[in-house]
Design brief:
The protein is of the alpha/beta class. It has five helices and five strands; from the N terminus they run ββαβαβααβα.
């Protein structure tokens, strides 16, 4: 569900599949552990995330709060059209730092 890579001091986490009631606890635990391990600059790449539920949106908010508390930042990029629609309908596209392209998100750090 999560693959990671580093790019100039930023941890890029690519989420794939579904982020819903079944997977959200595990994803949240893994992402929060990455932040706790010192990865304050986190980019969530959503280009292979097929679906996100309201519980999945809460994962994004929890991780954003954790990165902010650690003195870092969370950015999201490249959402699929279905995920972008959920982010827009929920208003999360205005609350979270969302970018259409990975390069733009990296430049925003």
């Amino acid at each position: 569900m999560i693959t990671t890579r580093h790019e100039t001091g930023i941890l890029i986490c690519e989420l794939s599949g579904r982020l819903d009631a079944t997977s959200s606890d595990g994803v949240a635990t893994e992402l929060l552990a990455l932040v706790a391990a010192g990865n304050g600059k986190l980019l969530l790449c959503l280009k292979t995330l097929d679906y996100v539920s309201s519980i999945g949106l809460r994962v994004f908010v929890r991780v954003a709060k954790a990165t902010h508390a650690a003195g870092g930042a969370l950015k999201l990029c490249s959402p699929t059209s279905s995920v972008a629609k959920v982010l827009e309908i929920s208003g999360m596209d205005n609350l979270l730092d969302l970018h259409t392209e990975e390069s733009a998100a990296l430049a925003a750090f």
